Amino acid sequence: MEPVYTPVIGAAVGLFKAMRWTVHVSGAHNIPLTGPAILASNHIGYLDFVVVGYGAREADRLVRFAAKQEVFEHSVAGPLMRGMKHLPVDRDGDAMAIMRLAKERLALGQVIGMFPEGTISRSFMPAQGKTGTARMALESGVPLIPTAVWGCQRLSTKAVTKNIERNIEIRVTFGPPIPYDQDDEPRDLSRRLMEKITGLVVALQEAYTQVPAGPEDSWWQPAHLGGSAPTPEEAEEMIRQERIERRRRRKAEREGGG
Questions:
Q1: Is 108 in a helix, a strand, or coil?
Q2: Is there a contact between 122 and 169 (Cβ–Cβ < 8 Å)?
Q3: In this predicted structure, what is the pLDDT of residue 149?
Q4: Phi then psi for 196, rounded to 5 degrees?
Q5: Per-chain mean pLDDT for the chain
Q6: From its phi and psi, is residue 153 left (phi > 0), alpha (psi between -120 and 50) or beta?
Q7: Are 121 and 16 contacting, i.e. CB atoms less than 8 angstroms apart?
Q8: Residue ranges of the chain whose pLDDT lies below 70
Q9: What is the largest CA-CA distance in the chain?
Q10: Around Cβ 67, how many Cβ atoms within 10 Å?
Q11: 154: closest CA among 145, 146, 162?
Q12: How many CB atoms lie within 10 A of CB 145?
């Protein structure tokens, strides 16, 4: 029984139809119909998990996503996230807590959704992944499915006003499971995973039929495609500065609390 997840999916499907957001799904046959799996996706916007979950419906699977703890503390989103049995990640807490929880869920046969980059890519191109997703797969021995989304950055993403434009094209694809041995190095598996995800993202970009309406609308297009999004190098520096600022705030909160 999924008293929260099922109606949330229904609401999402209804919203997509009302806004005429067309979601093209491919590769869903690569998702196991039963048993545990990890869907590892690029991260370009706040609705990526909705789109990945939407695509997984074609395999009749519900995806439990790892998301930052702050979302679970939100007065509205928190109860929904807990009700859908998603996994909280405390970025400044016990780094192994998410690993333990994910392994428990995988042992129950659930499908776990991960964003290996750990944060939204402002360049809209996959960045270097953290090794946590690879370690999770290696320790659990479950299928690791590279996943890619495109177009959903146009709806809601970092530092950009939410978009309620109709008729937006969205694409999601699931690649074949990445072959690995359980004695592989996590860093090597993570590298191969991100290479596969990047290939899937490029393929979605090439298949995408919509283009920016003009220079002012080119923000969602990557720099290498002529858009005004930051380059991967600029985006990486933004992430570095955000991490520094987050640590500064946490330190100030701890000292103030003491």
A1: coil
A2: no
A3: 98
A4: -65, -45
A5: 94
A6: alpha
A7: no
A8: 257-258
A9: 55
A10: 17
A11: 162
A12: 25
